[in-house]
Every structure is written in structure tokens, then in C-alpha cells.
Amino acid sequence: MKNYKMNEIKNMRLLGRNVAGGIASDGAVRLYWAGAALEVNVKAREVWAEISCNYDFHEIWLAIEVNGFQISRFIVPKKSEWVCLARNLNPEKENLITIIKDTQPMSGDILHELRITGIRLDDEGDFCELKPRSCKMEFIGDSITSGEGLAGKPDEMEWITQWFCGSKSYAVQLAKKMNADWTIMSQCGWGLCWGWDGDVNSSIPLHYEKVCSVLNGEQQKKMGSCDALPQNCGADYVILNLGTNDNSGFKNHDDGKGADGAAGQTVITGAKRFLGLIRKYNPGAKIIWTWGMISLDIIPALIQKGIEEYKKESGDKNVYTLELESMEVLEKSDEDKGSRGHPGPLTHKKASERIFDFISSLQNL
Q1: Distances in Å between the alpha carbon of 268 and those of 173, 243, 288, 316, 346?
Q2: What is the dihedral of CA 200, 242, 57, 54, to 10 degrees?
Q3: Are 21 and 40 in contact (CB under 8 A)?
Q4: How far apart are CA 226 and CA 214, in angstroms?
Q5: Contact by Cβ (8 Å): 204, 140
Q6: What is the per-residue pLDDT across 156-199, written as a single tens digit (0 to 9) for each?
Q7: Whole-model pTM?
Q8: d(CA 49, CA 119)
Q9: Helix 262-281 and helix 299-314, axial crossing angle in degrees, nearest 10
Q10: Which secondary structure element, helix H or strand E, spans residue 144, and what is its range?
């Protein structure tokens, strides 16, 4: 077997927000957000990775894919270990090996980190060039985008990380349909302006310009979590699925005037401001704001108003809205449903298909 440090692997692809160059100062690759991934293309009989992590309470799960299909899922060991990703492969064939972080970054846990420090191949194994993808996509969301509820029975209600499958979300499914590189940032319970409980600190836009500043412990910052987001010409498509928690937390800010009051105006202004920030980092992107996988009432109209005002004031015509099919309508059987009252596999599949069709219609204009 031959061991390779991360800086010795020329043909490696990182999907997701990361530090400049992708390798932290200690030589390790870190995966931050749910759905973040590391890919290598190999001709080898077996592939291993040296992986470790740290956390206070919520363990970190990884999913392993071979050629785009999941073959395993496991809790990451805290102590550095060599983990077999795949073996007995055809060494004459190129195989794409993908390590995907299933667990979102846990804000408030100053220990949370995932480290990949090496890749091991059999003695005859070699790394091959990675085939370039067709486009780049960025996804911004909450628990739905983090893949909460995509593991476990529908009646499982504990808030634990084994029910998270960022690798199975509509976002990763859509990126694969688009043959796209992807970046995802999402936090359960967070929103555009506030979280499910009305907490204004639970706002995704506050962290947009950093790599992963929801992790702000000293070690996390030292390894780059609060570094400025590298500007690299941005994505071709930005998909927002944000507003579900603003809907839940709206009552905490409602002054009795509903959508016409201060809370409503905060959402409208927040949408305009965030679109401007997204455009700064993604000058050529088509931005699509989606909602509806969980049925909402007041927030969609406010976001749409913010979008229309933003477009009118900025002259930006490449911003769109799209309502998705809801879990309440789609899911009939336990196989369709997710745990923790969240959208299940069917709703995520339908969302990826609907967004894909919408993007296809834009491309044909």
C-alpha cells in the first residue's frame, strides 16, 4: 500500500466552501457544511482514507460513493484512523471515489471539525485526472438543504445527527443531474432574517462572506472556518431554499400588522440585501429562490416582493422564483416520508426534478 498526504495528490476535487487552496495550515482537508465532499478518480484495487474528527456532543457522519452511488455510511472516528472506502475494484477501470459529509456544521460546538489527512492506494494504484463538470451550483438553505430527516422512520423525532443525510438532499441530486460542481451552506432552524424561534442571530446571510463562520471556536478559526470566502468567479446557478424558519419565527416579530408591519418589511429588505450580496460573489449566475417543500403561508409573498423590488432597483433580470411541491401533498407511504417531520426522499427527488426542468426552460430561452 502507498500513502499520500493531501498536498501530494494533484488530482483531487473539493466540493463545498473551503479555505484558499483547500488544504488547511496543518496539512489536512476539512469538510465544513452538509454535502461538502472530496473526490478522487483512481485506477486501484482499493482506496483508503485517513480520517478523524472532533465534536462535543453531535457525532459526524460520512457517506462514501463509488461512481456517484452510495455504498456506505458511518460515524467518523475521533482518533485518526485509516478507513477502507472501497476494495476489490477493477484496477483497469477509472473509479470516482467521493467522500461526502452528511452532517451539517454544529453552530455553538467549538470542537466540531472533520479532517482528512491522507489517501492510501494499493501499490499499483494511481490517481487519474478528474473529468471537468459542466457548471457550478451554489445552494443556500436550512434543515431541508442539510438533508435532515432523510434517514430513519417517519416517527423518529430525536434531534440527532444519524437522521441527517446531506448526501441525499435535493441539492446533491440536482447537482448530479446538472453534472455540476456544487457548494452548499445550510443550517437547521436558521433563516433569512431569523430562526424558527425568532432568534435574529440565526440568519444565514450573516455568514455568507466567510468559509464557515458558524464554527467560531479558537481551533476552528485557526484552521480557517472564519476566513474570507475566496472569490473565484462564482457559480452559474444559485439556488435558495430559505424562508421556512422565517415563517415559523414570524410571530415573534409580528407587531400585529402581519405582512404590512415591521416584521414583513424586515423580510422584504432582508431578501433585497441578500440578493445583492449573492450577486457580488456570483456576477454571472442565474439566481432561483425556491420554497414549498414544507407548506408556508406568509413568507413567500414577502420574499417575492423583495425580489421584485431588488430587480427593479438593480436592473438585475437573472433572479427567479419557483414554488416546489410540498411533502404534505406528495408523501403517501412511509417509504416516501422523512423522519422528524421533514421532507422525505420523494419530496427531495421531486424538488430536484422540478428545479432541473425550470433551469432547462431558462437555458432554452
Answers
A1: 30, 11, 16, 17, 31
A2: -110
A3: no
A4: 8
A5: yes
A6: 999 999 999 999 999 999 999 999 999 999 999 999 999 999 99
A7: 0.97
A8: 4
A9: 50
A10: none
